Amino acid sequence: MTSIAMNPDARLAVTQSRAVVSEWIKFRSLRSTWWSIGIALLISIGLGILFSDLRGNDLASHGGFEPDQTALTLRGFYLAQLAVGVLGVLFISGEYSTGMIRATLSAVPKRVPVWAGKIAIFAAVIFAVTLVAAFIAFLGGQAVLSAYQVHGIFLSGPNGNIGFSPGSAGTVHSLGVSISHPGSIRAIFGAALYMVGIGLLGLGCGFILRNTGGAIAALFGLVLVLPLLAQALPGSMQQHVTKYLPLIAGTAGMNTVSSTDQLAPWAGLGVFALYVVAALGIGLLVLRRRDA
Amino acid sequence: MRLPRKLPSLRCVIEAVGLTKRYGEKVAVDGLSFEVQPGIVTGFLGPNGAGKSTTMRMLLGLDRPTAGSASINGRPYERLRAPLCEVGALLEARAIHTGRSARNHLLALAATHGIGRRRVDEVLDLVGLTQVAGKRVGGFSLGMGQRLGIASALLGDPHTLILDEPVNGLDPEGILWIRTLLRSLAAEGRTIFVSSHLMSEMSLTASHLIVVGQGRLIADASMSEFTASAGRTVVRVRTDEAPRLRDLLAADGVSVTSTERDLLTVSGLSSAEIGKVAAEARIALVELTPQQASLEEAFMELTRDAVEFGTPMEEAAL
Q1: Domain count, chain A
Q2: Would you give the DSSP letter of residue A222?
Q3: Is the residue at A181 inside a domain?
Q4: Is residue A37 included in any domain, yes or no?
């Protein structure tokens, strides 16, 4: 006598893939999901194009050169991260605030598939959406930049252009770069990965704190406030600490010009991933242990 | 509705063994052991705060017991392969995201088990929510929310249902609907474990009672046993000297309650014994009436000592 004997339709059972489908239905059936994604798209693309136009206009009229045109067009993601982070928090905290979590965990009492399902769905959707947004922001922004031209001479170094000497003596250069510009595609993927990471960090905070307000405060305290606090550290210490903070490490992959203030692109994303894994890991521990 | 599947001969469907839940210093459930037999309606009765909801959450694996264990069909709830197909649950607090439509709520739960869209439409129809299935739950009345909760519980066509205070806060129409539904589910041979703080609600549907107070088991008996043992005779005594008579009657096994200044309700003594005590003390009686206690009174009597936040009405009236 087992439960299977009671349930002749043995096809009905909880599996990980079914938990993923369930999370997808939950994710897509809330208006807040599409509002957050819509706002993130609008901000990342809109600001990318707007900043490109402002910078292009300024450089064309006053002279000078933009060293990292790719990062310029991806600047909007610094604001879009708010919408994505909040969406990550809400994906789980909304279940706690409404009591839905009890229905969810009654259906999937092992709990782990819920956690994994949320991560899988969130990461897949946000990666796809923000990757498209990053491509559009880049292509749109570069198209706008290309409309502006500056006169001057590039100073070349082993890693590409290291400087620019403006003046009428030089040749005419278009400000925009193409998608084949060194590092541009990596930076576009880096922006999408950073967005996925911020959202998952929010999801992890939500699993840990279960409360929407608290988790949002924790997430952006960690991401946006820590770098400001680090500025109070003495110079030498500050330099060592700051580059390992989530915001600074996570956005290292969005630049095409390396800087001593940031880790190398993949190293930065790797450090950032550690924060995400830690938050989600603690989230899983408390999800398994705590009463729902 | 589909007929429930034949149940193999089980000793019990739901089993709690020494179930205990502590929140810091406070003990919500204290070494509770009971069994719920298949195919009948078992009432889970107790005053508010007696630990009924906590017990039910532990049965469903939502709360972790501090000690003891609970099992459904012989296994802990967490180990069921298809929990929704074995037990349907309706918990007291709403467990529905207000921003989602009723249909999407059910589709999301159904998806975890591979239950199809057709069954979702079936249960929506069964609880009468088909018309509003696409509307967001946030705009639902309490009664509609409760119907959606019942729909979720029936999604996997489970043989066993766990319902926590299903009529709480409902309007008369909603209460009638739940009662009718419970009767029809019971008539199909399903096992129903339903909690209430109202005896009257239980007497309509339950054939077995598990009574708890302050987290402890007070009674575990069939409804007929319960009525027979608890429904002992009480005597209504009306006198102007109620407080004095009350003191005189006080003894082991005698309980005296009072709802009016000059009225005593005495159990544990016959009307003849009370009359004799009153005569010896030269207390004039206005009324001396033996009465059969109602189930409600029997329950109140049983749980009086276990009521966590009892009103001091009885003392105040004297």
Answers
A1: 1
A2: I
A3: yes
A4: yes
Q: Which two tokens stand for residue A123?
A: 């990461």
Interval A29-33 mean pLDDT:
96
Chain B contact probe: residue of A27, A100, A105, A290 with most B CBs at under 10 A:
A100
- Decide if pLDDT at B318 tops 60: no
Burial environment of residue B44 by CB neighbours within 10 A (0 to 12, 13 to 18, 19 or more): buried
* pLDDT tens for each residue of B200-217: 778 778 889 999 988 999
> pLDDT digit string (tens) for B11-68?
679 999 999 999 988 999 999 999 999 989 999 999 888 999 999 999 999 999 999 9
Domains recognised in chain B with CATH numbers: 14-226 (3.40.50.300), 229-316 (3.30.70)
CB contact under 8 A, B99 and A31: yes
Kindly state whether residue A174 falls inside one of the protein's structural domains: yes
CB A192 within 8 A of CB A134: yes
Beta bridge partners of A153: A165
B275-286 pLDDT, tens per residue? 999 999 899 999
pLDDT score for A175: 86
State how far the Cα of A1 lies from the Cα of A16, in Å rounded to an integer: 26
CA distance B69 to chain A (A): 15
d(CA A268, CA A217): 23
Q: How many CA atoms lie within 13 A of A171 on its CB side?
A: 5
List Cα–Cα distances, B226 to B15, B193, B199, B219, B303, in angstroms: 21, 17, 11, 8, 13
> CA-to-CA distance for A272 and A248, rounded, in angstroms?
9
Residues whose CB is less than 8 angstroms from the CB of residue B231 and which lie 6 or more positions away in sequence, other chains included: B292, B293, B294, B295, B298
